[in-house]
Amino acid sequence: DTAVSQTPKYLVTQMGNDKSIKCEQNLGHDTMYWYKQDSKKFLKIMFSYNNKELIINETVPNRFSPKSPDKAHLNLHINSLELGDSAVYFCASRNRASGNTIYFGEGSWLTVV
Amino acid sequence: EDKVVQSPLSLVVHEGDTVTLNCSYEVTNFRSLLWYKQEKKAPTFLFMLTSSGIEKKSGRLSSILDKKELFSILNITATQTGDSAIYLCAVEGVRAAGNKLTFGGGTRVLVKP
After folding, report:
1. Given CB 3.0 to 4.6 Å as the disulfide criterion, which of A84, B15, B89, B103 pairs with B23?
2. With contacts defined as CB-CB under 8 Å, which chain A residues touch B88?
3. Cβ distance B72 to B63 under 8 Å?
4. Are the Cβ atoms of B42 and A104 closer than 8 angstroms?
5. How far apart are CA A78 and CA A19, in angstroms?
6. How far apart are CA A75 and CA A94, in angstroms?
7. Cβ pair A56:B97 closer than 8 A
8. Handedness of CA B49, B51, B57, B58 (dihedral sign)
9. Residue A40 buriedness (CB in 10 A; 0-12 / 13-18 / 19+)
10. Does the beta-carbon distance from B103 to A102 stay under 8 Å?
11. What are the CA-CA distances from residue B68 to residues B8, B25, B29, B71, B94 (Å)?
12. Do A96 and B31 touch (CB under 8 A)?
């Protein structure tokens, strides 16, 4: 069973559309993240949730809104998609208290045309 | 702002060669440094380093941290074509609002037969 799973894996959409990417982890972790990896392969943190509470919110446009219905899920909704939003979005999770390493999902490849 | 710089950006070697990847960092309240290997999809965990001078080994890979000079190296000996990947270094900084993982831009390694 996949530990951190994201859907969809691939998404091609037009500018101006609204889309969501879903993430689920079955590791029992208490902290989840969204990272964006651009064409230059830089992985940058966008959001972090601990026990459904937002704890890190980097400088990200308001068009990006995370939602955590429970500890095992962290979804990312993007409004009014722009060309520059094209990237790979990685969900990740860890157990904050134990300091274990962070586990990544396989990524969601978003292309805005 | 936390910063992680990796070098070289890319390198090409032949099977059997040894490669050394560098990672230097600036981080507030350092907690750990992590190395990841990214092939086609999700980054996969290699090492977590928290103490200076203690080498971690896993097969042909090894890594060491120097907290005084603020850098780490990742060595791969007797390289194989399967070692071709992007190697990512990340540092974790402790923050009241929640620890943050900052990634470097990666080193792209290509191992030729």
Report:
1. B89
2. 41, 43
3. yes
4. yes
5. 5
6. 16
7. yes
8. negative
9. exposed
10. no
11. 21, 11, 13, 8, 18
12. no
Contact status, residue B24 vs residue B5, Cβ threshold 8 Å: yes
pLDDT of residue A54: 82
User: What average pLDDT score do residues A63-81 get?
Assistant: 94
Q: Which residue has the higher pLDDT, B22 or A107?
A: B22
Other Cβ atoms less than 10 A from the Cβ of B64: the count is: 18
Predicted confidence at residue A2, as pLDDT, reads 65
Residue A99: list chain B partners with CB under 8 A.
31-32
Lookup result for tokens 């959409």: A13
Q: Hey, are the CB atoms on B90 and A40 less than 8 Å from each other?
A: no
Residues of B in contact with A96 (CB under 8 A): 98-99
B4 chain-A contacts, CB cut-off 8 A: none
Per-residue pLDDT of chain B in tens (113 residues, 90 and over written 9): 789 999 999 999 999 999 999 999 999 889 889 999 998 778 888 988 998 988 999 999 999 999 999 999 999 999 999 999 999 999 988 876 667 788 898 999 999 99
